[in-house]
Amino acid sequence: MAVRWQALKRGQRGQLALITALIAMPTSVAVVFAAELTALSGERSKMQAAVDAAALAGAREIGVSGGEERDIKGYTEQFAKELTNQTIPHVTTTFKAEQLADGAVRIDGVGTRNSFFGNMIPKGGFVIKVRAEGEALSKRPLCVVATGSSDVKRALDAKEQSRILAPNCLIHSNADMELSDKAAIDAGAIQASGIAEGLGYSPEADEGALVLRDPFQSRVIKNKKSKCSQGLKDGVVQQRRETKGVHKLSAGIKRWQYTATGTAEFRLGPGEHYFCQPLTIEQQGKLTGDNVVLIFENGALTATGDAKVTLTGRQTGNWAGFVFVSDRDNEADTILSSSFVDKLLGIIYLPNGDLFINAKGNVAEDSLWSVVIARNIAMAGGSTLVINDNYEGSGVPVPMGVGSQTRSDEDGTRLRH
Predict the structure, then answer these.
(1) How many CB atoms lie within 10 A of CB 325?
(2) Which residues contact 383 (CB under 8 A, 6 or more apart)?
(3) Distance CA 411, CA 188 (A)
(4) What angle is formed at CA 334 by the lines to CA 337 and CA 230, rounded to 5 degrees?
């Protein structure tokens, strides 16, 4: 009797355990599924944040003059991919971006991940779909580009108390940029394809931007008629050194090395001036010219001491809009260390040359507008490079690819969806 009673109790306990398990199973499934949905909601939020940020980044690139010529689509997709790889690496994501007819950027994202139930609930796992559209509210004038080179990590470098002042313009480096000591950049927008080291950026610099191609890379610079080697006599460069008086130089080829020192002035006539050798303005010398472009096949401009430089770029012809150019084979440094480089109205184009500014005051502040494109830009001392953007009425046209063709009262970017 006792044996049968114990067997009955064991049977009842087994049935109770089975019933309890059957009851608990749906509850456990519901708990796990609820946890999955909570995680899914967080993952979707992170994916949405990624496409929002990518759409704004793409729109910002379009907002740069000439942005339509770059791979905005690929850049936007990669931007979103890198963000999701950091925030939700367990979710497999794909992105597709497109540049819309009105200039906006749209990006769609799809994310998939396995579910706790072996992709049976739901079948195939969880799928997340997101979309964002960003638009540029205005096109920032492209005013300063440090194009960089393969052997130099940093393309824009400012130290001590130097400064770039370009309130409405975009300042861009195709590599890293660095501000040290009390150096500063105050611009409409600042970005680097590499990283932006140091403080002093206003607004904060964007990193990882698209590399900007040289807008004038297809332009032929060298003058086939220059025959600069003819400027040598027995292997020695002929020199013209003036110490006083005004010396007018007509447009054309200059095979000698020119220096204005003391109180001498070189006054350039309208047109294209091809220099085969360096041009130096020192002490209280002057270099002036309206409707001119200086093209250096060799050497470059050096302005030191209290030298005064006042130049207005070409208004017509093949070099309209340019004020200062160096040949692609010319790696000479352009050095501006005088505090009286008042006007450089037009484009300073040094495709394989470096620009060094180490003055005690403002440089180019009397220019209605200026654009600087150089391999590397270095600033020091108390110099301030002033970049104005008053394009209208200057008399010097702005070539396509720089400056700004359209303006808006609104700045920045925004999300449309």
Answers:
(1) 27
(2) 162, 163, 336, 357, 358, 359, 360, 361, 362, 363
(3) 9
(4) 130
Both tokens assigned to 185 = 């950049």
Place of tokens 């012809």: 317
What is the pLDDT of the chain when averaged over all its residues?
A: 85
The token pair at 417 is: 């969806």
In the numeric block, the tokens 């729109």 are attached to 59
Give the number of other Cβ atoms within 10 Å of residue 3's Cβ: 7
pTM across the whole model: 0.74
Q: What are phi and psi of 240, to 5 degrees?
A: -125, 115
Q: Let me know: does 253 contact 226? Beta carbons within 8 Å.
A: yes
CA gap 364, 315 in Å, rounded:
18
Q: How far is CA 99 from CA 103, 136, 411, in A?
A: 6, 12, 19
CA distance 275 to 341: 20
User: What percent of the chain lies above the pLDDT cut of 70?
Assistant: 82
State how far the Cα of 347 lies from the Cα of 117, in Å rounded to an integer: 64
Residues 6+ apart with CB under 8 A from 221: 295, 325, 326, 327, 328, 351
Question: Over the stretch 163-205, which tens digit does the pLDDT of each residue have?
Answer: 999 998 999 999 999 999 999 999 998 999 999 999 999 999 9
379 beta partners: 158, 357
pLDDT in tens, 387-407: 999 998 889 999 888 886 444
Cα of first residue to Cα of last residue in the chain, in angstroms, is 78
